[in-house]
Amino acid sequence: GYSLGGMVAQAFVRRHPERVTKLILAATAARIPLRARRLRKALFWAGRGLERLSGAEGAWLRYRYLLRRGAVEAHHARWLWETFMDRDPTLFYDAGFAALDFDGREWATRLARPALVVIPTEDRLVPPRAQYELAALIPGASVAELVGAGHEACLTHADDLAKVIDRFLAES
Length: 172
Hints:
Elements: H1 4-15, E1 23-26, H2 34-53, H3 56-68, H4 77-86, H5 89-101, E2 115-120, H6 128-137, E3 142-146, H7 153-156, H8 158-171
Parallel strand pairs: 1-2, 2-3
């Protein structure tokens, strides 16, 4: 599970432990630290309000950020813009608020199974310290760092991510 998907994966393992033999979590946490959560909630409330007036500004900021980070090749810029403009803003913010309210620390220790936690070391959305906390909570979890990668590592460091996943699956 990646980002919010990692939180979903944690909840899935908690509810259906017999269905998961190996767990890979990337750019995610058992919870977002309080200080980061407060700031992000304030930004989400402001973003949600602005988006009700016009969705273009928030889409433009995300679009420019991903292009600047090299997450999407320039020849796919139009696709990226259209994707951002076509998304459901209510769903986007509801999912974001759910991630900010997620707290799996009480039961993360029961996620024991071969587990890999992949940490983009420059993640600005899910603080790396929260990702290390998640890894420490899961008994025996392996950690792989994507040094210099941000939250968009699945796009900017896809080959590195695939290598650490392949290595984990081969070893465990």
